[in-house]
């Protein structure tokens, strides 16, 4: 299991992990997540941290809590598609910022990315 980064709150890092699992379809629409307690044990964090993670993702419309049943990935496919696009743009923005800091031009980034993708 990955360690947590000290530069970002743990609940947000857990939210990122859950988002990646949803985008990669490891977690599917309508799928139930582990209980707050079980998730806390899995990641060795306080259950309150997991509750905060779930609350954050619920606020974003990614998760939904069903009274007496638990926490589930939303079944609103349009919201999941929107989140997938958001995460894609976020990663592209991060890539571009790092490359620009190193002095690469747009054409160098595009050709480098194309060369990299052609290898797969």
Automatic annotation (TrEMBL):
This is Transcriptional regulator. Residues 8-76 form the HTH gntR-type domain. The keyword DNA-binding applies. The lineage of its organism: Bacteria, Bacillati, Bacillota, Bacilli, Bacillales. It comes from Paenibacillus wynnii. Pfam families: GntR. Keywords: DNA-binding, Transcription, Transcription regulation. InterPro entries: Tscrpt_reg_HTH_GntR, WH-like_DNA-bd_sf, WH_DNA-bd_sf. SUPFAM superfamilies: Winged helix' DNA-binding domain (SSF46785). One of its GO terms (molecular function) is DNA-binding transcription factor activity. PROSITE patterns: HTH_GNTR. Gene3D superfamilies: Winged helix-like DNA-binding domain superfamily/Winged helix DNA-binding domain.
